[in-house]
Specification:
CATH architecture of the largest domain: Roll
Strand content: over 45%
Order of helices and strands: EEHEEEHEEEEEEHEEEHEEEE
Structural class: alpha+beta
CATH class of the largest domain: Alpha Beta
Shape: globular
Number of strands: 18
Helix content: 10-25%
Distance between the termini: 7 Å
CATH topology of the largest domain: Diaminopimelate Epimerase, Chain A, domain 1
Length: 262
């Protein structure tokens, strides 16, 4: 079976996207997408990506998005993927505002004049403040999915690579979590390194950037408009009264077909 796909990324957070608006895609409906995600996302052997995204029609809004991590597990929300599918919808319709259903609820998305994409992720919530895990004290933040934010003085030694997996699976959490180590640069800028549950170290994470800003504002460290510097690039977060607005560029790398062996 040939599977048509798009490959996109947002600051290096990359995805294989299956577009169910395309007529030829409906033959894929009965696939086990956990297995598909594992194979397609595998570097060297598949296409290579942080996750698999299904973009589907929805009668009550513009589209629906489902996300699978590289290990085949599901993800409730992904700000980077949401921005990518917004770009696809814009290319299809020419519209600049969309409502997309996710497993974390209905999200409003915008295409800006400079072709960056803004998505409203809603209001984060603090599940645990100053929570001790292993030798680290951090904030557990919910923003469609859960993120553990650890503020450190330096990212030079790549703490996400040393400790990310152990924190992700720590029995102090009710579920596996995303892990971010953050360094304050000034009141309008923060740098983070990322360990995402289900796929490991990634170059960017939109919900993680937003969760980090929420943690920083709660601690009195950050203003409401912040640039988040990640290994793959920069996003802007605006902590508005209507929700946390995540803005940044997206890029389509290529498209093709994958030979799925049933």
């Amino acid at each position: 079976m040939l599977i048509p796909f798009l490959k996109m990324h947002a600051q290096g957070n990359d995805f294989v996207i299956l577009d169910y608006f395309a007529p030829e895609s409906f033959a894929l409906a009965k696939l086990d997408f956990s297995s598909v995600a594992e194979e397609l996302c595998k570097p060297h052997f598949g296409i290579g990506a942080d996750g698999l995204v299904l973009l589907m029609p929805n009668e009550s809004c513009d589209a629906q998005m489902f996300i699978y991590n590289a290990d085949g597990s599901t993800a409730e929300m992904c700000g980077s993927a949401l921005r990518c599918v917004t770009w696809i919808l814009h290319q299809k319709t020419g519209k600049k505002e969309f409502r997309v259903q996710t497993e974390a609820g209905l999200k409003t998305c915008y295409v800006n004049e400079d072709n960056t994409i803004t998505v409203n992720l809603g209001m984060p919530s603090m599940l645990k403040s100053a929570y001790q895990v292993m030798d680290f004290t951090g904030d557990l933040v919910e923003i469609g999915n859960q993120h553990f934010i650890v503020w450190v003085s330096s990212l030079q030694d790549d703490p996400h690579l040393q400790y990310g997996s152990a924190i992700e699976h720590h029995n102090g959490f009710a579920q596996t979590v995303n892990v971010h180590f953050a360094v304050l640069l000034n009141r309008t800028a923060v740098a983070i390194k990322i360990w995402e549950k289900g796929c490991g170290a990634t170059l960017a994470c939109g919900t993680g950037a937003s969760a980090t800003v929420f943690s920083g504002i709660a601690k009195g460290l950050l203003n409401n408009e912040v640039e988040v510097l990640m290994p793959g690039g920069i996003v802007k977060i605006n902590a508005s009264e209507s929700g946390y607005l995540l803005s940044g560029e997206v890029c389509q790398s290529f498209q093709g077909v994958y030979n799925w062996k049933i």
